[in-house]
Amino acid sequence: MWKAGHSLIKAKMKELKAELGGEVSGHIFFKDRFFGFDDALYASLRLLEIMSSTGSSITELLKDVPKTIMTPEIRLESDDNKKFEIVKKVTEYFKNAGYKVNDVDGVRVIFDDGFGLLRASNTQPALVQRYEAQSQERLDEIMELIQSKLKEIEDNS
To answer: What is the 3-state secondary structure (H, E, C) of the chain?
Structure first.
């Protein structure tokens, strides 16, 4: 797991000698044949190559991937001068409250059955959120937890 952004992921892949990298947005980076290649058509052709060489369908190849529900990227306008400080305060709250947190790029609050992510956009005056869980009900609970704390911190900033 690393910071969002094409150049940041390519640099981390090089450092770790990673074979493959990607973002939820759909960007997929390959090490072999051309370092850092990020092209939807190329990724599709590589998938077809894997299917052809294994004789497996997409369903068969993905059968062990857990089924979850994920929100699209949720962007909330935020003052460029305050967005990083807001994320820092939200991160501190969840860490101090004993939640499992990954703070590589913003704050990812991790639960056994999902996560909530809040980070400051590197390119726009916005806060970016994304949520994932094993059920819609749990997704809504995680969103409510993080968004209520975000609102509280924003209101006091």
So the answer is: CCCCCHHHHHHHHHHHCCCEEECCCCCEEECCCCCCECCHHHHHHHHHHHHHHHCCCHHHHCCCCCCCEECCCEEEECCCCCHHHHHHHHHHHHHHCCCEEECCCCEEEEECCEEEEEEECCCCCEEEEEEEECCHHHHHHHHHHHHHHHHHHHHCC
pLDDT of 37 over the 70 cut: no
Domain encompassing residue 48: 6-61
Position 103 in a domain: yes
pTM, rounded to two decimals: 0.77
Give the residue-averaged pLDDT of 76-90.
95
| Mean pLDDT rounded to a whole number for the chain | 90
1 part of a folded domain: no
